[in-house]
Amino acid sequence: MKKTREGFGRALAELGKTNPDVVVLVGDLTDSTMVSFFAKEFPDRFVEMGVAEQNMMTAAAGLSLVGKIPFLATYGAFATCRCADQIRVTVCYSDLNVKIGGAHGGISVGPDGATHQALEEFAMMRVLPNMKVIVPCDFEETRKATLAAAAVWGPVYLRFGREDVPVVTGAATPFEIGKGILLRDGDDVAIVACGVMVHEALQAAEALAARDIQARVINIHTIKPIDRNLLIQAAEDCGAVVTAEEHQIHGGLGSAVAEVLVRHCPVPMEFVAVEDRFGQSGKPAELMAAFGLTADHIVTATEKVLARKVARVY
After folding, report:
1. Are 9 and 55 spatial neighbours (Cβ–Cβ below 8 Å)?
2. Is 171 a domain residue?
């Protein structure tokens, strides 16, 4: 069990040693976003911007225009909602090389409550031209995603959480922006997940296997650009798809997958996500259960989609 946000912080420290153009800005959340690792080693390339997220986004844009690779860090709810205009007009419209670290994403933030629980940012970010949206599933993948974000040109939004989560990928697991990862094979149903829901999907697949239902589990860590070929192949092979995300049901991973499949390989689909409501305060595990974001909920969704598959109801 490790924190995804630590993967972000550790990767920034690595980048600081290998790339002198990398700079880090933070909005009064140095320890929470774990950019403290970078700040300690490279104080001359670290700027504490205070509670001024819109200014921070604009400053990052300016730094990119003079050849720097700025990473900015704050909570995902603040980075996207408060800075929507700056991201759209200043960063994305000009295709600037700005990297946005959105910490404390999803309902699993826990007691911070609805104002701090980013549940809309997949939709908000993926609709913007030039923006890439990455939602890694664990510490190791977050580290790799951060390194990859520095190497690719243009705006990138990285979403990671607050709590410890199981590590389901390893040092040898490949990571490429825009390429999903097949974690488990199966031909009865494809479970497509991102972020913390990847582990839940693997647990659901284990429970389904005990009932002789073979679930293919795919980690779509990049929501935009999405891996169309992997998704189409899964739909063709399995004939049914379940998506799982710690995000609103509208506009996120499920919508992105459906947009691909409805045009290339329409199959029955079910969606495990937050059902059009704001978050609330509580313990992370209790909230995940209350909002329908557990392995058991994925199993239930799989039962529904398999019934539709048999009945050929699309």
Report:
1. no
2. no
- Is the domain of 63 the same as that of 157? yes
Domain total for the chain? 2
Task: Kindly state whether residue 218 falls inside one of the protein's structural domains.
Answer: yes
Same domain? 152 vs 186: no
Give pTM, 2 decimals: 0.96
Q: Which amino acid type is present at position 53?
A: E
Dihedral angle over CA of 172, 159, 261, 124, nearest 10: -160
Tokens found for residue 251: 């506009």
In terms of domains, do 27 and 159 share one?
yes
- Provide the 3-class DSSP secondary structure of residue 158: strand
Residue tagged active-site, from 14, 41, 53, 259: 53
The C-alpha atoms of residue 130 and residue 140 are separated, in whole angstroms, by: 26
pLDDT of residue 1 exceeding 90, the answer is no
pLDDT tens-digit profile of 258-310?
A: 999 999 999 999 999 999 999 999 999 999 999 999 999 999 999 999 999 98
- Among 10, 38, 8, 5, which Cα is nearest to 22's? 38
Side chain identity, residue 221: H
Active site residue 53: yes
